[in-house]
Amino acid sequence: MAEKDLYDEFETITNQLNDISKKVSLLKEELSKTLEENEEVKLENQNLRSHLEKVSTEDEDPNGNKLSDSRLNLENLYLKGFHICRPLYGARRDRNKEECVFCLQILDSDNDSNKKKKKIN
Ligand SMILES: [Zn+2]
C-alpha cells in the first residue's frame, strides 16, 4: 500500500511539473512578444519624436506658410490615435476614452495663431 501511495504521489508531482513547464513556456512566449512590442513602440516613439522636431522646425518658419501643414500633420497624428501634447507626445491614445484636453489645446492654439496671422495679413 505504502509503495502505491508513493507511486501516486510521484505521478501527481510529475503532472504538476509538466503543468508548470507548460506555463513557463507560455510565459516565455508572452515575454518575448512583449519585448518585441516594446521595441516596436520604442521605434515608433523615436519616429514620432523626430517627426515632432521636424514639425516644430517648420513652425519656426518666419513666413508661417508651413504652419497649417504642420498643424494638419499633428491633427492627423492625433486622429490616428497618438498624443501630440507635450506630456504624452507619441503615446497611443485610447480611442474609446474621451479626448485628451492637452492635445485639443494644442490643436486649438494652432488654430488661434492661424486666425491671428490671417487677421494681421
Ligand atoms: Zn494628449
Keywords, please?
121 residues, mainly alpha, binds zinc ion
Briefly, what is this?
The chain has 121 residues and is mostly helical. It has one domain. The protein has helices at residues 2-59, 67-79, 101-120.
Kindly state the mean pLDDT as a whole number? Answer: 82
The percent range for helix content is: over 70%
What is the count of distinct domains?
A: 1
Q: Which structural class do you get from the secondary structure elements?
A: mainly alpha
What are the secondary-structure elements, in order, as H or E?
Answer: HHH
Tally of strands = 0
Biggest beta-sheet profile: none
General form: rod-shaped
- Computed over alpha carbons, the radius of gyration is 27 Å
- Work out the strand percent: under 5%
Low-confidence stretches: none
Number of helices: 3
Distance between the termini: 100 Å
What hetero molecules are bound to the protein chains? zinc ion
Q: Which helices and strands occur, and which strands form pairs?
A:
Blueprint: H1 2-59, H2 67-79, H3 101-120
Helix pairs in contact: 1-2, 2-3
Bound molecules: zinc ion.
Report on this model:
This protein has 121 residues and is mainly α. The chain has one domain. It has helices at 2-59, 67-79, 101-120. The longest helix is centred in the N-terminal third of the chain and has 58 residues, at 2-59. The N and C termini lie far apart (100 Å). The mean pLDDT is 82. Residues 83, 85, 88, 100, 102-103 line the site of zinc ion.
